[in-house]
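In the previous chapter we treated chains in isolation. Here, by contrast, the input contains two separate entities that must be folded as one system, with a combined length of 578 residues.
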Amino acid sequence: MDKSINIICGHYGSGKTNFSLNLALQKKREGKNVTVVDLDIVNPYFRTADYTDFLINNGIRVISPASAGTTVDAPQLTAEMYSVFDNVDGYTVIDVGGDDVGAYALGRFSGILKSLPEPYEMIFVINKFRTMIAEPEDALEIMNEIQAASRLSVTGIVNNSHLATITTAEDILSSLDYAEKTAKLAGLPLLATTAPSHIAPELEGKVKDLLPVDVIVKLPWN
Amino acid sequence: MVLFMAERVLMKGNEALAEAAIRAGCRNFFGYPITPQTELAAYMAKRMPKIGGTYLQAESELAAINMVLGAASAGVRAMTSSSSPGVSLKTEGISYMAGSDLPALIINVQRGGPGLGGIQPSQSDYWQATRAPGHGDLHILVFAPSSVQEMVDLVSKAYDLADNYRMPAMILADGMLGQMMEPVVLSEESDKPLPKKEWAACGHNNERKHNIINSLYLTATELERLVKERFERYAIIEEKEPMFENYCTEDAEYIVVAYGATSRIAKAAVKEARKDGIKVGLIRPITLWPFPKKAMAAAAENAKAFLCVEMSMGQMIDDVKLAINCKCPVNFFGHTGGVIPTPVEVLEEIKKMAKA
Protein backbone atom coordinates (compact mmCIF):
# COMPACT_ATOMS: atom_id res chain seq x y z
CA MET A 1 0.00 0.00 0.00
CA ASP A 2 2.99 2.26 -0.52
CA LYS A 3 2.60 2.66 -4.27
CA SER A 4 1.49 5.94 -5.78
CA ILE A 5 -1.78 4.55 -7.20
CA ASN A 6 -3.93 2.38 -4.93
CA ILE A 7 -7.13 0.89 -6.29
CA ILE A 8 -9.65 -0.39 -3.74
CA CYS A 9 -12.08 -2.96 -5.08
CA GLY A 10 -14.27 -5.72 -3.70
CA HIS A 11 -17.74 -7.05 -3.12
CA TYR A 12 -20.20 -4.28 -2.39
CA GLY A 13 -20.69 -3.75 1.30
CA SER A 14 -17.30 -5.23 2.20
CA GLY A 15 -16.19 -1.88 3.59
CA LYS A 16 -14.22 -0.41 0.69
CA THR A 17 -15.27 3.16 1.37
CA ASN A 18 -14.45 3.10 5.08
CA PHE A 19 -11.12 1.46 4.28
CA SER A 20 -10.37 3.99 1.51
CA LEU A 21 -11.12 6.93 3.83
CA ASN A 22 -8.84 5.49 6.51
CA LEU A 23 -6.03 4.77 4.07
CA ALA A 24 -6.23 8.32 2.73
CA LEU A 25 -6.17 9.85 6.23
CA GLN A 26 -3.29 7.65 7.32
CA LYS A 27 -1.16 8.61 4.32
CA LYS A 28 -2.05 12.26 4.82
CA ARG A 29 -0.81 12.01 8.40
CA GLU A 30 2.44 10.60 6.99
CA GLY A 31 2.77 13.84 5.07
CA LYS A 32 1.79 12.63 1.61
CA ASN A 33 -0.08 14.66 -0.97
CA VAL A 34 -3.30 12.57 -1.02
CA THR A 35 -6.09 12.41 -3.59
CA VAL A 36 -9.22 10.27 -3.21
CA VAL A 37 -11.11 9.25 -6.34
CA ASP A 38 -14.70 8.08 -5.97
CA LEU A 39 -15.10 5.85 -9.00
CA ASP A 40 -18.46 4.44 -7.94
CA ILE A 41 -20.94 5.12 -10.70
CA VAL A 42 -23.23 2.27 -9.63
CA ASN A 43 -24.60 3.11 -6.22
CA PRO A 44 -25.66 6.56 -5.02
CA TYR A 45 -25.75 5.53 -1.33
CA PHE A 46 -22.97 5.35 1.30
CA ARG A 47 -20.12 6.45 -0.93
CA THR A 48 -16.82 8.28 -0.64
CA ALA A 49 -18.21 11.43 -2.21
CA ASP A 50 -20.56 11.76 0.79
CA TYR A 51 -17.42 12.52 2.79
CA THR A 52 -16.06 15.19 0.45
CA ASP A 53 -16.21 17.99 3.06
CA PHE A 54 -14.62 15.75 5.68
CA LEU A 55 -11.77 14.87 3.32
CA ILE A 56 -11.22 18.43 2.14
CA ASN A 57 -11.14 19.60 5.77
CA ASN A 58 -8.40 17.06 6.30
CA GLY A 59 -6.41 18.46 3.39
CA ILE A 60 -7.27 15.67 0.98
CA ARG A 61 -8.25 16.31 -2.62
CA VAL A 62 -11.42 14.59 -3.85
CA ILE A 63 -12.38 13.66 -7.39
CA SER A 64 -15.85 12.23 -7.84
CA PRO A 65 -18.41 11.66 -10.61
CA ALA A 66 -20.18 14.88 -11.58
CA SER A 67 -23.49 13.50 -10.29
CA ALA A 68 -22.25 12.26 -6.90
CA GLY A 69 -24.15 13.70 -3.98
CA THR A 70 -26.60 15.52 -6.22
CA THR A 71 -29.17 12.67 -6.15
CA VAL A 72 -29.13 12.84 -9.95
CA ASP A 73 -28.89 9.36 -11.39
CA ALA A 74 -26.63 10.29 -14.31
CA PRO A 75 -23.28 8.68 -13.64
CA GLN A 76 -20.39 10.22 -15.49
CA LEU A 77 -16.69 10.52 -14.70
CA THR A 78 -14.82 13.77 -15.07
CA ALA A 79 -11.68 14.31 -17.13
CA GLU A 80 -10.03 15.39 -13.87
CA MET A 81 -9.57 11.66 -13.25
CA TYR A 82 -6.61 11.66 -15.61
CA SER A 83 -4.68 14.14 -13.50
CA VAL A 84 -3.90 11.48 -10.88
CA PHE A 85 -1.91 9.45 -13.36
CA ASP A 86 0.51 12.35 -13.87
CA ASN A 87 0.77 13.05 -10.15
CA VAL A 88 3.75 10.74 -9.59
CA ASP A 89 4.73 12.32 -6.27
CA GLY A 90 1.22 12.07 -4.87
CA TYR A 91 -0.67 9.28 -3.18
CA THR A 92 -3.95 8.31 -4.80
CA VAL A 93 -6.73 6.11 -3.41
CA ILE A 94 -9.28 5.03 -6.02
CA ASP A 95 -12.49 3.73 -4.41
CA VAL A 96 -14.16 1.51 -6.99
CA GLY A 97 -17.85 0.53 -7.05
CA GLY A 98 -18.82 -2.91 -5.78
CA ASP A 99 -18.46 -6.19 -7.64
CA ASP A 100 -17.76 -6.52 -11.36
CA VAL A 101 -20.52 -4.04 -12.24
CA GLY A 102 -18.68 -1.36 -10.27
CA ALA A 103 -15.33 -2.38 -11.73
CA TYR A 104 -16.39 -1.82 -15.36
CA ALA A 105 -15.85 1.90 -14.84
CA LEU A 106 -12.27 1.15 -13.84
CA GLY A 107 -11.73 -0.84 -17.04
CA ARG A 108 -11.79 2.37 -19.01
CA PHE A 109 -8.49 3.32 -17.32
CA SER A 110 -6.87 -0.11 -17.62
CA GLY A 111 -4.60 0.90 -20.50
CA ILE A 112 -3.17 3.93 -18.74
CA LEU A 113 -2.90 2.06 -15.41
CA LYS A 114 -0.92 -0.76 -17.03
CA SER A 115 1.49 1.69 -18.64
CA LEU A 116 2.34 3.63 -15.44
CA PRO A 117 6.10 3.86 -14.72
CA GLU A 118 5.43 2.50 -11.24
CA PRO A 119 2.99 -0.45 -11.12
CA TYR A 120 -0.35 0.18 -9.44
CA GLU A 121 -1.53 -1.52 -6.26
CA MET A 122 -4.99 -3.07 -6.54
CA ILE A 123 -6.42 -4.16 -3.21
CA PHE A 124 -9.29 -6.62 -2.94
CA VAL A 125 -11.18 -5.96 0.30
CA ILE A 126 -12.81 -8.97 1.93
CA ASN A 127 -15.22 -9.42 4.84
CA LYS A 128 -16.00 -12.88 6.16
CA PHE A 129 -19.35 -11.70 7.50
CA ARG A 130 -20.68 -10.73 4.08
CA THR A 131 -22.80 -13.63 2.96
CA MET A 132 -21.85 -13.64 -0.73
CA ILE A 133 -18.11 -13.83 0.07
CA ALA A 134 -18.29 -15.76 3.34
CA GLU A 135 -16.25 -18.61 1.86
CA PRO A 136 -12.79 -18.15 0.28
CA GLU A 137 -14.03 -19.74 -2.97
CA ASP A 138 -16.92 -17.26 -3.23
CA ALA A 139 -14.58 -14.34 -2.55
CA LEU A 140 -12.26 -15.57 -5.26
CA GLU A 141 -15.11 -15.88 -7.75
CA ILE A 142 -16.04 -12.23 -7.20
CA MET A 143 -12.37 -11.20 -7.36
CA ASN A 144 -12.02 -12.92 -10.72
CA GLU A 145 -15.17 -11.21 -12.03
CA ILE A 146 -13.75 -7.85 -10.91
CA GLN A 147 -10.45 -8.58 -12.66
CA ALA A 148 -12.25 -9.52 -15.86
CA ALA A 149 -14.44 -6.41 -15.79
CA SER A 150 -11.60 -4.02 -14.96
CA ARG A 151 -9.02 -5.75 -17.18
CA LEU A 152 -6.58 -5.28 -14.29
CA SER A 153 -4.99 -7.64 -11.77
CA VAL A 154 -5.47 -7.58 -8.03
CA THR A 155 -2.10 -7.30 -6.25
CA GLY A 156 -3.06 -7.84 -2.62
CA ILE A 157 -5.84 -8.61 -0.18
CA VAL A 158 -7.03 -6.69 2.87
CA ASN A 159 -9.08 -8.51 5.48
CA ASN A 160 -11.73 -6.04 6.55
CA SER A 161 -13.98 -8.55 8.33
CA HIS A 162 -16.39 -6.81 10.68
CA LEU A 163 -20.00 -6.80 11.91
CA ALA A 164 -20.61 -3.05 11.84
CA THR A 165 -21.21 -1.53 15.29
CA ILE A 166 -21.13 -4.82 17.19
CA THR A 167 -17.72 -6.08 15.97
CA THR A 168 -15.69 -7.79 18.70
CA ALA A 169 -12.03 -8.86 18.92
CA GLU A 170 -13.25 -12.48 18.68
CA ASP A 171 -15.02 -11.71 15.41
CA ILE A 172 -11.78 -10.46 13.93
CA LEU A 173 -9.77 -13.38 15.29
CA SER A 174 -12.34 -15.74 13.80
CA SER A 175 -11.73 -14.22 10.37
CA LEU A 176 -7.95 -14.79 10.21
CA ASP A 177 -8.16 -18.32 8.88
CA TYR A 178 -10.64 -17.23 6.20
CA ALA A 179 -8.42 -14.32 5.17
CA GLU A 180 -5.31 -16.46 4.91
CA LYS A 181 -7.13 -19.13 2.92
CA THR A 182 -8.53 -16.53 0.53
CA ALA A 183 -5.09 -14.98 -0.01
CA LYS A 184 -3.52 -18.39 -0.53
CA LEU A 185 -6.20 -19.42 -2.99
CA ALA A 186 -5.69 -16.17 -4.89
CA GLY A 187 -1.89 -16.54 -4.74
CA LEU A 188 -1.65 -13.00 -3.36
CA PRO A 189 -0.21 -11.42 -0.22
CA LEU A 190 -2.52 -10.62 2.71
CA LEU A 191 -1.53 -6.99 3.17
CA ALA A 192 -3.41 -6.20 6.37
CA THR A 193 -6.23 -7.10 8.72
CA THR A 194 -8.26 -4.11 9.86
CA ALA A 195 -9.87 -3.61 13.26
CA PRO A 196 -11.95 -0.71 14.61
CA SER A 197 -9.50 1.44 16.57
CA HIS A 198 -11.29 0.88 19.89
CA ILE A 199 -10.76 -2.88 19.53
CA ALA A 200 -7.29 -2.87 17.98
CA PRO A 201 -5.37 -2.74 21.31
CA GLU A 202 -6.89 -6.11 22.29
CA LEU A 203 -5.51 -7.61 19.10
CA GLU A 204 -1.92 -6.37 19.34
CA GLY A 205 0.45 -9.28 18.92
CA LYS A 206 -2.38 -11.63 17.92
CA VAL A 207 -2.97 -10.36 14.40
CA LYS A 208 -0.28 -10.04 11.75
CA ASP A 209 -0.22 -6.69 9.91
CA LEU A 210 -2.98 -5.27 12.11
CA LEU A 211 -4.37 -2.01 10.75
CA PRO A 212 -6.55 0.00 13.14
CA VAL A 213 -9.32 1.90 11.33
CA ASP A 214 -11.78 4.52 12.49
CA VAL A 215 -15.44 3.87 11.76
CA ILE A 216 -16.18 6.85 9.54
CA VAL A 217 -19.09 5.50 7.48
CA LYS A 218 -22.06 5.68 9.87
CA LEU A 219 -25.85 5.68 9.95
CA PRO A 220 -27.72 8.91 10.75
CA TRP A 221 -28.72 7.71 14.23
CA ASN A 222 -25.32 6.30 15.32
CA MET B 1 -21.83 -20.52 -1.38
CA VAL B 2 -22.44 -22.26 1.92
CA LEU B 3 -25.83 -21.82 3.53
CA PHE B 4 -24.86 -19.94 6.65
CA MET B 5 -26.92 -21.09 9.60
CA ALA B 6 -27.97 -19.32 12.76
CA GLU B 7 -24.90 -17.14 12.99
CA ARG B 8 -24.45 -13.43 12.68
CA VAL B 9 -23.70 -12.06 9.24
CA LEU B 10 -23.51 -8.59 7.76
CA MET B 11 -26.14 -7.81 5.16
CA LYS B 12 -27.59 -4.93 3.24
CA GLY B 13 -31.30 -4.48 3.77
CA ASN B 14 -32.01 -5.32 0.15
CA GLU B 15 -30.05 -8.56 0.31
CA ALA B 16 -31.62 -9.50 3.63
CA LEU B 17 -35.11 -9.14 2.15
CA ALA B 18 -34.12 -11.47 -0.68
CA GLU B 19 -32.47 -14.10 1.51
CA ALA B 20 -35.34 -13.99 4.00
CA ALA B 21 -37.84 -14.60 1.18
CA ILE B 22 -35.84 -17.59 0.00
CA ARG B 23 -35.80 -18.99 3.54
CA ALA B 24 -39.55 -18.41 3.76
CA GLY B 25 -39.93 -20.73 0.78
CA CYS B 26 -39.98 -18.26 -2.10
CA ARG B 27 -38.55 -19.83 -5.24
CA ASN B 28 -40.13 -17.49 -7.77
CA PHE B 29 -38.89 -13.95 -8.09
CA PHE B 30 -39.90 -11.59 -10.88
CA GLY B 31 -38.24 -8.21 -10.93
CA TYR B 32 -37.14 -5.19 -12.79
CA PRO B 33 -34.21 -2.96 -11.76
CA ILE B 34 -34.69 0.40 -10.11
CA THR B 35 -32.61 2.33 -7.60
CA PRO B 36 -32.54 1.91 -4.62
CA GLN B 37 -33.75 -1.71 -4.58
CA THR B 38 -31.63 -3.22 -7.36
CA GLU B 39 -29.38 -5.23 -5.02
CA LEU B 40 -32.44 -7.28 -4.10
CA ALA B 41 -32.95 -8.40 -7.69
CA ALA B 42 -29.20 -8.84 -8.18
CA TYR B 43 -29.04 -11.06 -5.09
CA MET B 44 -31.94 -13.15 -6.35
CA ALA B 45 -30.26 -13.46 -9.76
CA LYS B 46 -27.20 -14.97 -8.09
CA ARG B 47 -28.98 -17.14 -5.52
CA MET B 48 -32.04 -18.54 -7.28
CA PRO B 49 -30.20 -20.61 -9.92
CA LYS B 50 -28.10 -22.21 -7.17
CA ILE B 51 -31.15 -23.47 -5.26
CA GLY B 52 -33.33 -24.52 -8.16
CA GLY B 53 -35.50 -21.41 -8.04
CA THR B 54 -36.56 -19.02 -10.75
CA TYR B 55 -35.21 -15.52 -11.13
CA LEU B 56 -36.72 -13.68 -14.03
CA GLN B 57 -36.07 -10.12 -15.06
CA ALA B 58 -39.31 -9.11 -16.71
CA GLU B 59 -39.63 -6.59 -19.52
CA SER B 60 -41.43 -4.16 -17.21
CA GLU B 61 -42.80 -3.78 -13.72
CA LEU B 62 -46.28 -4.53 -15.03
CA ALA B 63 -45.05 -7.79 -16.54
CA ALA B 64 -43.28 -8.71 -13.30
CA ILE B 65 -46.36 -8.24 -11.11
CA ASN B 66 -48.47 -10.27 -13.52
CA MET B 67 -45.88 -13.06 -13.39
CA VAL B 68 -46.25 -12.93 -9.61
CA LEU B 69 -50.02 -13.17 -10.10
CA GLY B 70 -49.53 -16.24 -12.28
CA ALA B 71 -47.14 -17.93 -9.89
CA ALA B 72 -49.34 -17.12 -6.88
CA SER B 73 -52.34 -18.59 -8.75
CA ALA B 74 -50.43 -21.86 -8.95
CA GLY B 75 -50.05 -21.76 -5.16
CA VAL B 76 -46.33 -21.02 -4.78
CA ARG B 77 -44.71 -18.26 -2.74
CA ALA B 78 -43.79 -15.57 -5.25
CA MET B 79 -42.28 -12.13 -4.87
CA THR B 80 -41.50 -8.95 -6.75
CA SER B 81 -39.64 -5.87 -5.64
CA SER B 82 -39.36 -2.32 -6.84
CA SER B 83 -39.12 1.26 -5.72
CA SER B 84 -41.82 3.94 -5.75
CA PRO B 85 -42.30 4.69 -9.50
CA GLY B 86 -42.08 0.97 -10.22
CA VAL B 87 -44.65 0.16 -7.55
CA SER B 88 -47.06 2.61 -9.18
CA LEU B 89 -46.77 0.49 -12.30
CA LYS B 90 -47.54 -2.63 -10.31
CA THR B 91 -50.75 -1.34 -8.76
CA GLU B 92 -52.94 -2.84 -11.46
CA GLY B 93 -51.58 -6.30 -10.75
CA ILE B 94 -51.86 -5.79 -7.00
CA SER B 95 -55.54 -4.92 -7.39
CA TYR B 96 -56.12 -7.99 -9.58
CA MET B 97 -54.43 -10.16 -6.95
CA ALA B 98 -56.54 -8.66 -4.17
CA GLY B 99 -59.62 -9.27 -6.33
CA SER B 100 -58.54 -12.87 -6.89
CA ASP B 101 -57.67 -13.49 -3.22
CA LEU B 102 -54.05 -14.29 -4.05
CA PRO B 103 -51.23 -14.20 -1.50
CA ALA B 104 -47.91 -12.75 -2.65
CA LEU B 105 -45.20 -10.45 -1.40
CA ILE B 106 -44.40 -7.06 -2.90
CA ILE B 107 -41.40 -5.07 -1.73
CA ASN B 108 -41.29 -1.29 -2.00
CA VAL B 109 -37.92 0.27 -1.19
CA GLN B 110 -39.25 3.81 -1.32
CA ARG B 111 -37.54 6.77 -2.97
CA GLY B 112 -38.64 10.37 -3.33
CA GLY B 113 -41.65 11.23 -5.48
CA PRO B 114 -43.99 12.05 -7.14
CA GLY B 115 -43.18 11.10 -10.70
CA LEU B 116 -39.68 9.84 -11.22
CA GLY B 117 -38.81 11.87 -8.14
CA GLY B 118 -35.35 11.14 -6.82
CA ILE B 119 -33.27 8.18 -5.75
CA GLN B 120 -32.76 9.02 -2.09
CA PRO B 121 -34.84 7.52 0.73
CA SER B 122 -38.43 8.56 1.33
CA GLN B 123 -41.64 7.45 3.01
CA SER B 124 -43.96 9.22 0.64
CA ASP B 125 -45.74 6.06 -0.52
CA TYR B 126 -47.57 5.62 2.80
CA TRP B 127 -50.82 6.78 1.27
CA GLN B 128 -50.36 4.51 -1.72
CA ALA B 129 -49.60 1.46 0.41
CA THR B 130 -52.33 1.97 2.99
CA ARG B 131 -55.04 3.69 0.94
CA ALA B 132 -54.77 2.79 -2.70
CA PRO B 133 -52.29 0.05 -3.54
CA GLY B 134 -54.62 -0.55 -6.49
CA HIS B 135 -58.12 0.38 -7.58
CA GLY B 136 -61.21 -0.99 -5.89
CA ASP B 137 -62.36 -1.77 -2.37
CA LEU B 138 -59.27 -3.44 -1.01
CA HIS B 139 -56.53 -3.57 1.55
CA ILE B 140 -53.17 -5.25 1.52
CA LEU B 141 -51.06 -6.09 4.56
CA VAL B 142 -48.34 -3.45 4.97
CA PHE B 143 -45.26 -4.08 7.11
CA ALA B 144 -42.72 -1.38 7.99
CA PRO B 145 -39.43 -2.79 9.26
CA SER B 146 -36.94 -0.47 10.95
CA SER B 147 -33.79 -2.60 10.93
CA VAL B 148 -32.19 -5.16 8.67
CA GLN B 149 -33.01 -7.86 11.24
CA GLU B 150 -36.65 -6.84 11.24
CA MET B 151 -36.69 -6.94 7.44
CA VAL B 152 -35.73 -10.59 7.73
CA ASP B 153 -38.29 -11.34 10.41
CA LEU B 154 -41.16 -9.54 8.71
CA VAL B 155 -40.69 -11.21 5.33
CA SER B 156 -41.56 -14.58 6.78
CA LYS B 157 -44.38 -13.09 8.87
CA ALA B 158 -45.76 -11.36 5.76
CA TYR B 159 -45.79 -14.59 3.76
CA ASP B 160 -47.53 -16.46 6.58
CA LEU B 161 -50.26 -13.84 7.00
CA ALA B 162 -50.68 -13.43 3.25
CA ASP B 163 -51.24 -17.18 2.92
CA ASN B 164 -53.49 -17.28 5.95
CA TYR B 165 -55.74 -14.43 4.80
CA ARG B 166 -55.29 -15.00 1.05
CA MET B 167 -54.22 -11.47 0.18
CA PRO B 168 -51.14 -9.61 -1.06
CA ALA B 169 -48.68 -8.28 1.49
CA MET B 170 -46.17 -5.49 1.14
CA ILE B 171 -42.93 -4.67 2.90
CA LEU B 172 -42.74 -0.88 2.87
CA ALA B 173 -39.05 -0.12 3.29
CA ASP B 174 -37.07 2.90 2.13
CA GLY B 175 -33.76 3.59 0.42
CA MET B 176 -31.95 3.99 3.73
CA LEU B 177 -33.07 0.57 5.01
CA GLY B 178 -32.47 -1.07 1.66
CA GLN B 179 -28.96 0.25 1.32
CA MET B 180 -27.66 0.15 4.88
CA MET B 181 -25.68 -2.70 6.36
CA GLU B 182 -26.39 -4.30 9.71
CA PRO B 183 -25.62 -7.59 11.41
CA VAL B 184 -28.44 -10.11 11.16
CA VAL B 185 -29.18 -13.64 12.27
CA LEU B 186 -30.96 -15.70 9.65
CA SER B 187 -32.88 -18.73 10.73
CA GLU B 188 -32.56 -21.92 8.77
CA GLU B 189 -35.20 -22.60 6.17
CA SER B 190 -37.95 -24.58 7.81
CA ASP B 191 -38.37 -28.13 6.55
CA LYS B 192 -42.03 -27.95 7.52
CA PRO B 193 -44.15 -28.00 4.35
CA LEU B 194 -45.84 -24.73 3.48
CA PRO B 195 -49.61 -24.56 4.06
CA LYS B 196 -51.64 -26.45 1.46
CA LYS B 197 -53.56 -24.22 -0.94
CA GLU B 198 -56.67 -26.12 -1.95
CA TRP B 199 -57.75 -23.22 -4.14
CA ALA B 200 -54.61 -23.13 -6.29
CA ALA B 201 -54.78 -23.68 -10.03
CA CYS B 202 -51.94 -26.14 -10.20
CA GLY B 203 -53.43 -29.09 -12.05
CA HIS B 204 -56.37 -31.19 -10.81
CA ASN B 205 -55.04 -34.58 -12.02
CA ASN B 206 -58.69 -35.64 -12.43
CA GLU B 207 -58.87 -35.81 -8.64
CA ARG B 208 -60.90 -32.69 -7.97
CA LYS B 209 -62.91 -30.02 -9.74
CA HIS B 210 -60.78 -27.46 -11.51
CA ASN B 211 -59.96 -24.26 -9.63
CA ILE B 212 -60.49 -20.87 -11.22
CA ILE B 213 -58.52 -17.74 -10.34
CA ASN B 214 -60.50 -14.70 -11.41
CA SER B 215 -61.25 -11.12 -10.44
CA LEU B 216 -64.00 -10.38 -12.99
CA TYR B 217 -67.56 -10.51 -11.62
CA LEU B 218 -70.07 -8.83 -13.89
CA THR B 219 -73.05 -9.48 -11.64
CA ALA B 220 -73.15 -6.57 -9.22
CA THR B 221 -74.68 -8.53 -6.34
CA GLU B 222 -72.13 -11.31 -6.72
CA LEU B 223 -69.24 -8.78 -6.69
CA GLU B 224 -70.72 -7.02 -3.67
CA ARG B 225 -71.01 -10.32 -1.81
CA LEU B 226 -67.36 -11.13 -2.51
CA VAL B 227 -66.09 -7.69 -1.48
CA LYS B 228 -68.15 -7.81 1.72
CA GLU B 229 -66.75 -11.25 2.53
CA ARG B 230 -63.27 -9.81 2.02
CA PHE B 231 -64.02 -6.89 4.35
CA GLU B 232 -65.14 -9.34 7.04
CA ARG B 233 -61.67 -10.82 6.77
CA TYR B 234 -60.16 -7.31 6.92
CA ALA B 235 -62.06 -6.68 10.15
CA ILE B 236 -60.52 -9.80 11.71
CA ILE B 237 -57.07 -8.62 10.59
CA GLU B 238 -57.63 -5.16 12.09
CA GLU B 239 -58.57 -6.83 15.35
CA LYS B 240 -55.86 -9.49 15.50
CA GLU B 241 -52.81 -8.45 13.53
CA PRO B 242 -51.66 -4.89 14.32
CA MET B 243 -47.99 -4.81 15.36
CA PHE B 244 -46.16 -1.98 17.07
CA GLU B 245 -43.33 -1.20 19.46
CA ASN B 246 -43.69 1.06 22.49
CA TYR B 247 -40.59 2.81 23.75
CA CYS B 248 -40.68 4.83 27.01
CA THR B 249 -44.44 5.34 26.67
CA GLU B 250 -45.47 4.24 30.18
CA ASP B 251 -45.29 7.66 31.81
CA ALA B 252 -45.15 9.63 28.56
CA GLU B 253 -46.83 13.02 28.33
CA TYR B 254 -45.65 13.40 24.76
CA ILE B 255 -45.73 10.70 22.10
CA VAL B 256 -43.61 10.58 18.98
CA VAL B 257 -44.97 8.33 16.22
CA ALA B 258 -42.55 7.17 13.55
CA TYR B 259 -42.00 4.03 11.48
CA GLY B 260 -39.19 2.52 9.43
CA ALA B 261 -35.79 4.22 9.25
CA THR B 262 -37.33 7.42 10.64
CA SER B 263 -38.21 5.62 13.87
CA ARG B 264 -34.50 4.99 14.47
CA ILE B 265 -33.85 8.72 14.16
CA ALA B 266 -36.87 9.50 16.36
CA LYS B 267 -35.74 6.98 18.98
CA ALA B 268 -32.30 8.63 19.17
CA ALA B 269 -34.08 11.98 19.72
CA VAL B 270 -36.42 10.52 22.39
CA LYS B 271 -33.40 9.15 24.28
CA GLU B 272 -31.81 12.61 24.29
CA ALA B 273 -35.06 14.31 25.32
CA ARG B 274 -35.42 11.90 28.26
CA LYS B 275 -31.96 13.00 29.43
CA ASP B 276 -33.36 16.54 29.50
CA GLY B 277 -36.24 15.34 31.68
CA ILE B 278 -38.95 15.50 29.02
CA LYS B 279 -41.47 12.70 29.52
CA VAL B 280 -41.61 11.57 25.91
CA GLY B 281 -42.10 8.14 24.37
CA LEU B 282 -42.16 6.59 20.94
CA ILE B 283 -44.81 4.42 19.30
CA ARG B 284 -43.46 2.67 16.25
CA PRO B 285 -46.11 1.12 14.02
CA ILE B 286 -44.72 -2.12 12.58
CA THR B 287 -47.86 -2.81 10.56
CA LEU B 288 -49.15 0.27 8.73
CA TRP B 289 -52.21 -1.64 7.63
CA PRO B 290 -53.66 -2.78 9.94
CA PHE B 291 -52.71 0.43 11.77
CA PRO B 292 -52.09 -0.05 15.53
CA LYS B 293 -55.06 2.12 16.53
CA LYS B 294 -55.49 0.72 20.04
CA ALA B 295 -51.85 1.39 20.96
CA MET B 296 -52.29 5.01 19.87
CA ALA B 297 -55.56 5.42 21.73
CA ALA B 298 -54.07 3.91 24.90
CA ALA B 299 -51.13 6.31 24.79
CA ALA B 300 -53.47 9.25 24.16
CA GLU B 301 -55.16 8.64 27.52
CA ASN B 302 -52.36 10.43 29.35
CA ALA B 303 -50.66 12.34 26.54
CA LYS B 304 -50.66 16.09 26.07
CA ALA B 305 -49.57 16.00 22.44
CA PHE B 306 -48.35 13.74 19.65
CA LEU B 307 -45.62 14.31 17.07
CA CYS B 308 -45.54 12.42 13.78
CA VAL B 309 -42.08 12.19 12.22
CA GLU B 310 -41.93 11.06 8.62
CA MET B 311 -39.86 11.30 5.46
CA SER B 312 -42.87 12.77 3.68
CA MET B 313 -45.13 15.80 3.93
CA GLY B 314 -47.08 14.01 6.67
CA GLN B 315 -49.04 11.07 5.34
CA MET B 316 -49.45 9.05 8.56
CA ILE B 317 -50.74 11.99 10.60
CA ASP B 318 -54.40 11.41 9.65
CA ASP B 319 -54.24 7.79 10.82
CA VAL B 320 -52.87 8.95 14.16
CA LYS B 321 -55.61 11.59 14.51
CA LEU B 322 -58.31 9.02 13.70
CA ALA B 323 -56.79 6.46 16.07
CA ILE B 324 -56.80 8.88 19.01
CA ASN B 325 -60.07 10.49 17.93
CA CYS B 326 -58.30 13.90 17.96
CA LYS B 327 -58.05 13.66 21.74
CA CYS B 328 -54.95 15.89 21.76
CA PRO B 329 -53.00 17.89 19.17
CA VAL B 330 -50.98 15.89 16.60
CA ASN B 331 -47.95 17.82 15.36
CA PHE B 332 -45.81 16.96 12.41
CA PHE B 333 -42.15 17.14 11.53
CA GLY B 334 -40.60 15.73 8.41
CA HIS B 335 -38.44 16.10 5.38
CA THR B 336 -39.28 14.87 1.93
CA GLY B 337 -37.74 14.38 -1.50
CA GLY B 338 -34.88 12.28 -0.12
CA VAL B 339 -33.80 14.58 2.70
CA ILE B 340 -33.29 12.61 5.92
CA PRO B 341 -34.35 14.19 9.23
CA THR B 342 -31.61 14.28 11.87
CA PRO B 343 -31.95 13.32 15.56
CA VAL B 344 -31.04 16.93 16.47
CA GLU B 345 -33.94 18.31 14.43
CA VAL B 346 -36.42 15.85 15.94
CA LEU B 347 -35.15 16.71 19.44
CA GLU B 348 -35.82 20.39 18.74
CA GLU B 349 -39.38 19.54 17.73
CA ILE B 350 -39.91 17.51 20.90
CA LYS B 351 -38.66 20.45 22.98
CA LYS B 352 -40.99 22.81 21.11
CA MET B 353 -43.93 20.49 21.76
CA ALA B 354 -43.06 20.19 25.46
CA LYS B 355 -42.88 23.99 25.83
CA ALA B 356 -46.18 24.67 24.05
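DSSP finds twelve helices and 14 strands in chain B. Chain B touches chain A at residues 1-2, 4, 8-12, 15, 19, 35-36, 39, 43, 46, 112, 118-120, 175-176, 179-183, 264-265, 267-268, 338, 340, 342-343 (CB under 8 Å). Compare these points with the single-chain example from earlier in the chapter.
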